[in-house]
Amino acid sequence: VQLVESGGGLVQPGGSLRLSCAASGFILGQYEMSWYRQAPGKERDLVASISSLGGSTNYAKSVKGRFTISRDNAKNTVYLQMNSLNAEDTAVYYCNARRGNQIYWGQGTQVTVSS
Questions:
Q1: For a tag site, which of 19, 30, 68, 73 has the least CB within 10 Å?
Q2: Residue 69 and residue 48 in contact, taking contact as beta carbons nearer than 8 Å
């Protein structure tokens, strides 16, 4: 079982990034998927989640209207489109898969918003 995030990097304030999370070793379509983030010295917080078939999404207040979570179960991949980024979005972003008591985490990808 593996979740591999990609797409992080350095971006200027107001810019955009698209994160991807590629899953292997399990059937992505059976899992609720989420993105979390953890800034230095802070706890890991939920950013966005999407139901197994993609019919329901949920966002943290701080990113609502700027971030969009989506999934392609055929490609075993989940995405996080991030627009209008600001310094407060700087963090390591983690992909999470959940099905009942089964929970998997990726290794994280760094997003840095700075001029």
A1: 30
A2: yes
Report strand pairing: 67-72 vs 77-82.
Answer: antiparallel
Quick check: 106 and 5 in contact, CB under 8 A?
Answer: yes
In angstroms, rounded to a whole number, what is the distance separating the alpha carbons of residues 92 and 62?
16
Average pLDDT over residues 49-56: 90
The DSSP 8-state label assigned to residue 100 in this structure reads T
Say which amino acid occupies 22. Answer: A
Which region holds residue 7: left if phi is over 0, alpha if psi is between -120 and 50, else beta? Answer: left
User: pLDDT-based confidence at 67, cuts 50/70/90?
Assistant: very high
**DSSP letter for each residue of 51-91:** -TTSS-EEE-TTTTTTEEEEEEGGGTEEEEEE-S--GGG-E
Q: Which residue has the tokens 């992909």?
A: 95
pLDDT at 55 > cutoff 90: no
